[in-house]
Design brief:
With 445 residues, the protein is α/β, with parallel strands linked by helices. The protein has 3 domains: 3-195, Rossmann fold (3-Layer(aba) Sandwich); 204-293, N-(1-d-carboxylethyl)-l-norvaline Dehydrogenase, domain 2 (Orthogonal Bundle), CATH 1.10.1040.10; 296-441, NAD(P)-binding Rossmann-like Domain (Rossmann fold). 43% of the residues lie in helices and 13% in strands. It has 19 helices and 14 strands. It has helices at residues 11-22, 34-41, 52-61, 71-76, 98-110, 127-138, 159-164, 176-186, 198-229, 233-241, 262-275, 281-293, 296-301, 332-341, 354-360, 371-375, 388-391, 396-401, 416-422, and strands at residues 3-7, 26-30, 65-68, 80-83, 115-119, 145-149, 169-172, 193-196, 312-316, 345-349, 366-367, 380-383, 406-409, 425-427. A 6-stranded parallel β-sheet has the order 3-2-1-4-5-6, with helices on both faces. The protein has a 6-stranded parallel β-sheet with strand order 11-10-9-12-13-14, sandwiched between helices. A two-stranded parallel sheet has the order 7-8. Helix 11 (262-275) packs antiparallel against helix 12. It is elongated. The structure holds uridine-5'-diphosphate-glucuronic acid. The site of uridine-5'-diphosphate-glucuronic acid has 20 residues, from helix 9.
């Protein structure tokens, strides 16, 4: 059992802290935002993540998990301090390390015994070295602070499962002592530990995320070509997936990747490499494909609708993927903005993300609590997220409820056979067009 302090109660920090308590460590989570700590004291997670509330309650009641704004006390005698604060994107695409350096300064002012600072936040290559030098320079007491890199690979929506059953734990260390400390902390998880130097560990994180982003952009590029040449991306990716070298994951075509990680980490690595005088052409291409892909549905809809002014437009799903209430870099946002700017009456449904969407568009959009209400009398329907509730929705109801059943599906939620049976006008990504009976004369795209 070790005494661990975690800085940051977002997806990375909070989930890590809770899971480390669950396997037996004594964990204190620190965050400067009082409202978050107050919620956590009531065993309520400030982020939507399955299983998290229950584990917070269980471990807080067992006196293994604590929450505080008082960083001085929390850092003073910790064996390990894990940093899981955000590293958002600067205007130019580089990583913003303000939160990280704030925490580093606080640690240097507070630690009263030697400790290992573990950086989980995604940071540009070389940041761990700089952080160690910065803390050693600013440390107040006569103690040694060593830094280790330990990138995080959890996904939102499955974060607890991903942490408890991680495919691997990557540690970037510069001493045996740091390695031993991290091996002891992770011992209860019984997961493969891969150790390397700090710069390589920092790079593993970017390379993994950027590879997955590239895989998605590649599939979207092929999907766009499928539309042009009359192939079906579902069949193509299915055919590819049986090759174990390709695999069947991250082959889903759609309106592009969003979220707090892929958009930011592709741009950050691209920026970093350019700074070093190297152009990372593959990552650059992934970014460019994704930028265009976001507006793929609008481009399609323009063929049937010269303008959206005065039309009732149903929007189903707004989060960047299913299973989360997060809207960061969600393709829905620029699309809804475009619809509103053109004078559309937007009626929106999302099972979890509507409350957050309301913070961005408080009054301009009508928020509906069911799919039926959103599509009632609508002229067009756009689908931006593959929520199960949306995928399970009977297609015949689009035909029944909408004024005209024009469906533009950015996540390929329905099979073409179903769409044909339901007699709707249906456009998706990388698949042949389906026209409803009264539209049969429409030219196939
Ligand atoms: C991603 C990585 O998957 C995690 O391993 C990583 O730890 C995390 O970023 C991070 O850096 O913190 P996450 O952003 O939660 O996790 O979401 P993903 O499930 O990877 O999805 C990202 C985006 O790609 C979503 O918008 C999703 O709709 C899109 N996507 C995913 C596709 O368009 N097609 C696919 O086949 C898969």
């Amino acid at each position: 059992m070790m005494h661990i302090t975690v800085a940051g109660t977002g997806y990375v920090g909070l989930v890590t802290g809770v899971c480390l308590a669950e396997v037996g460590h004594i964990v204190t989570c620190v965050d400067p935002i009082q409202e978050k700590i107050e919620l956590l004291h009531k065993n309520i997670s400030p982020i939507y993540e399955p299983r998290l509330d229950g584990l917070i309650r269980k471990n807080a009641e067992a006196k293994k998990l604590f929450f505080t704004c008082d960083y001085k006390k929390a850092y003073a005698n910790a064996d390990i301090i894990i940093i899981g604060v955000g590293t958002p994107e600067n205007e130019d695409g580089s990583a913003n390390l303000t939160f990280l350096y704030t925490v580093a300064r606080e640690i240097a002012q507070s630690v009263e015994k030697d400790c290992l600072v573990v950086i989980k936040s995604t940071v540009p290559i070389g940041t761990n070295d700089k952080m160690e030098a910065f803390m050693q320079k600013n440390v107040v007491n006569d103690v040694k602070i060593e830094v280790a890199s330990n990138p995080e690979f959890l996904s939102q929506g499955t974060a607890v499962h991903d942490t408890m059953h991680a495919s691997r734990i990557v540690i970037g260390i510069e001493s045996d002592r740091a390695k031993q400390t991290l091996m002891e902390m992770y011992e209860p998880f019984q997961q493969p530990i891969i150790s390397m130097n700090r710069r390589s560990a920092e790079m593993v994180k970017y390379a993994s995320n950027d590879f997955l982003a590239l895989k998605i952009s590649f599939v979207n590029d092929i999907a766009n070509l499928c539309e042009v040449v009359g192939a079906n991306i579902d069949d193509v990716t299915n055919g590819m997936s049986y090759d174990s070298r390709i695999g069947n994951k991250f082959l889903q075509a759609g309106i592009g990747y969003g979220g707090s990680c892929f958009p930011k980490d592709t741009k950050a690595l691209h920026w970093l490499s350019e700074e070093e005088g190297y152009v990372l052409r593959t990552v650059k291409a992934a970014i460019e494909v994704n930028e265009k892909q976001k507006f793929k549905l609008m481009k399609k809809a323009r063929k049937e609708f010269a303008s959206f002014a005065g039309l009732k437009v149903a929007v189903l799903g707004v989060t960047f993927k299913a299973g989360t209430d997060d809207l960061r870099e969600a393709p829905s946002i620029p699309n809804v903005r475009l619809l509103l700017n053109e004078g559309a009456n937007v009626h929106l449904y999302d099972p979890i993300g509507a409350a957050n969407f309301k913070k961005i568009f408080p009054t301009q959009v009508t928020y509906e609590s069911t799919i039926e209400e959103a599509i009632e009398n609508a002229d067009i329907c756009f689908i931006f997220t593959e929520w199960k509730k949306i995928k399970d929705f009977p297609l015949s109801l689009f035909r029944e409820k909408m004024a005209s059943p024009y469906i533009y599906d950015g996540r390929n939620c329905y099979s073409l056979a179903e769409a044909q049976k339901a007699d709707i006008f249906y456009r998706s990504i990388g698949r042949p067009a389906v026209n409803h009976v009264s539209e049969k004369e429409t030219v196939e795209i």
